[in-house]
Amino acid sequence: MISINSKLPNVGTSLFTVMSALATEHKAINLGQGFPDFPMDQILAELARKAIADGHNQYAPMAGYMPLREAISQKVESLYQNKISANDNITITPGGGYAICTAFTTILDPGDEVIVFEPAFDSYIPNIVSCGAIPVILQLEYPSYRIDWDKLKSAITPKTRAIIINSPHNPTGTVMSDEEMLTLQDILHNTKIFLISDEVYEHLTYDGLQHNSALKYPELFERSFVCFSFGKVYNCTGWKLGYCIAPKALTAEFRKIHQYNAFCCFTPSQVALAEHIKHPHSYLQLKDFMQKKRDLFVKLMSNTGFDLLSANGGYFISASYEKISNMGGLDLAMHLTKTVGVATIPYSTFYSKGEDHKILRFCFAKKEESLIEAAKRLDQIQMNKL
User: What pTM was computed for the model?
Assistant: First the structure.
């Protein structure tokens, strides 16, 4: 048997995959993995069917279908006052996660350090480690989940190659303010540190908050790979389509990696999206649509023993279960899936060392009836009985 010197020796199957399989096995309502259980926009679906019928079924250009890149360029200028080039700055990718991984692969050499804020989406650290680089972990302040800027300054060394940020944030739902983005810009001024900005929930901000993209800040953008997801915006996660925006020189290097991995992405969906995003309502109305779901879930959960944390963006809201159980997060998540019929994700999976503040993450991007039934089941739990 030929052995492999594993690049990820401590990594097994993702807990998201495990919990979704467990939810299916036990017929539980899946509030764990971040995907909707309701149909995607039927106008967009029809545009995709039309693209297939019209013969858009061969390879798209490596960088992406040009009309789609042009539409993105116009959208970015309108939203963020940044006039980017469709030709030189935008690359269509098979998902936002792929864009992030490719950005890391583009810039990292063995021994480089990357600052990661935890709780963090689970792909970041494996992406970094597989490049031979070193993740430098900083914990967001609990329970506000904001960045401690003094700790960030102290963590920067001559080996720091990049920092990754995520706003709106998964799993916490926090949204970085303009003041925070300007603070980050000041910290990175006159450094050679790259920024990877995970903005897959770009259009899902609530309570009147705006999304402060790295694209809005010239000094941040000049060092940034800004990564987006169509799947998260348009509730079609199975399309696995996203894009990366970066300065011309960074984009050229990014595409060198991209062209030998995916080369290009599914053409019909690109053709459909090129038409769909010409109509701003298709994305501007999304925040109101999803905030209604968040607000409904908050109301439904008010009589349970869970204490919900604030969530100003994204698909998720988190809750403390201290009143309910002394179990660890993973044990409780498994128990709820198997016996209560509701699947969640424990916060420990978002920490490299498994920190457990007795917090579970719930996805509210679900049908109303799914949220109502899930809350009904969770309301049956007697406090301090688990």
Answer: 0.96
Which 8-state DSSP code applies to residue 354?
-
Residues 332-357 pLDDT 10s: 999 999 999 999 999 999 999 999 89
pLDDT score, position 356? 86
Q: Read off the amino acid at residue 341.
A: G
Measured CA to CA, the distance from residue 193 to residue 212 in angstroms comes to 20
Residue 114 domain flag: yes
DSSP code string of 22-36: HHHHTT-EE-SSS--
* DSSP letter for each residue of 279-297: STHHHHTHHHHHHHHHHHH
**Domain stops at, among 223, 252, 279:** 279
pLDDT of residue 360: 97
Out of 279, 305, 328, pick the residue that ends a domain: 279
CA distance 386 to 267: 50
Looking at the DSSP bridge assignments, the partners of residue 146 are 141
Predicted pLDDT of residue 1: 87
Three-state SS at 350: helix
**250 Cβ contact partners less than 8 Å away, ≥ 6 residues apart:** 106, 194, 224, 225
Supply the DSSP symbol for 366: S
- Is residue 232 within 8 Å of residue 211, measured between CB atoms? no
Q: Strands 29-30 and 345-346, how do they pair?
A: unpaired
The verdict on 109 and 150 lying in the same domain is yes
**Which structure tokens are listed for 23?**
């939810």
List 142's β-bridge partners, or say none: none
183, pLDDT greater than 90: yes
95-105 per-position pLDDT tens digit: 999 999 999 99
Residue 383: pLDDT band with limits 50, 70, 90: low
- Grade residue 10 by pLDDT with cuts at 50, 70 and 90: confident
Residue 384 predicted with pLDDT over 70: no
* Same domain? 120 vs 261: yes
Residue 360 gets the label, from left (phi > 0), alpha (psi -120 to 50) or beta, of beta
The residues near 355 (Cβ < 8 Å, ≥ 6 apart) are 118, 139, 347, 348
Distance (Å, whole) CA 269 – CA 277: 12
Amino acid symbol at 207: D
